[in-house]
Amino acid sequence: MNREKIQLRGITWGHTRGFVPMVATAQRYEELHPEVEIIWTKRSLQEFADKSVTDLAREYDLLVIDHPWTGHAAAERMVIPFDDFLPEAFLADQRENSVGQSYASYNFEGKQWALPIDAATPVAASRPDLLQELGLEVPNTFEDLLALAKKGRVGFSLIPIDVLMSFYMFCCSLGESPCQRDNEVVSSQTGVTVLKLFKSLADHIDPRFYTKNPFKVFEDMTQQDEIAYCPFAYGYSNYSRPGYTRKLLHFHDLVSMEKGGTPLISTLGGAGLAISSQSKHLDVAVDYARFVASPEIQQTLYVETGGQPGHLKAWENENVNAATANYFKNTLPTLQRAYLRPRYDGHLYFQDHAGDIVVNYLKNGGDELAVLEELNKMYQESLAWENVNG
Question: What Å distances lie between residue 183 and 72, 91, 110, 138, 177, CA to CA?
Fold first, then answer.
């Protein structure tokens, strides 16, 4: 009599980068373990950022999560700490081969709540063919970027969550990391400078970009021949791979604020693989997660099927870079200095709503101090929520 298979259900986000490598690794794992079946489901990028990990952990064994959920996941104990299930040697390798702070981004209260299978931060992208045709060069400074934007050749994501991440980026790049104090997101002096700087650029961006997330920006750049440069958007190596899209993008480090200066410091993204504490098959789920995050799979099957690995060895791999127009090599410095945003439980409330305030300012202008005051009020509310519920 045939034994019923052990079934695991997983949820990830619905882009080639998020979905296909999970299906591919599941297929291979099933071939190695015929008694196991792993079914992956996808959700939109917005749902990926929005839907509670707690709710998802009731439905799924395997969760691909965004690291700002780490504090919430730790508070609710709806996902397992890998420290209790995986050998220290494996976790040490993950830690030592972290791309920037990707590994640390899933560590909270001294426990590791997800494995960093995917690494990303806003990086620059260009259409080399279009720049050459127009006789233009990749910008090096913010001034160069502004000049290119005035020619109508620049686009980037202006949806609220990405605008907030860009706001953080400008703050960090001007020497002040946001959310370091309890009473304000950032000092008035830095905040006013950032808002004015951001608006000076946004004023020259087509309004259609207020509806586009990063990969929609890249689709726009590759399917049409108008936008030659994106100064910052969460990178997708897929668009630098031959055959994936109509025109190839090349990816770069960010511009600097002034000639010879340090490039901008963007806000870390990426995705981690977590396991629901409600799973009936924790041992199998952990073994599969270990398989996906292993340096061998990250450098081969995972990246070859459209994934954007979270293991440093994959980013440094010559074959991986040869297949992606050096996407990983060219953007690794950006990842290595990226800012790790807050992950306390209440910060999700701030992250979900603060971008709307900045978007409204970019569209309509207004008093910068009033914008900062509104952000500070929302930030203080998120901290109060944490203190009450933490």
Answer: 22, 36, 26, 39, 14
Q: Residue 79 in contact with residue 55, Cβ under 8 Å?
A: no
For the whole model, what pTM was predicted? Answer: 0.95
Alpha carbons 247 and 380: distance in angstroms, whole number: 45
CA angle, residues 59, 270, 302, in degrees to nearest 5: 80
pLDDT in tens, 273-308: 999 999 999 999 999 999 999 999 999 999 999 999
Pairing status of strand 36-43 against strand 62-65:
unpaired
Location of structure tokens 């440093």: 312
Residues 6+ apart with CB under 8 A from 103: 94, 95, 112, 116, 310
* AA letter at 307: G
- Say which residues have a Cβ less than 8 Å from residue 92's Cβ, sequence separation at least 6: none
Q: What angle do CA 75, 76, 81 make, to 5 degrees?
A: 80
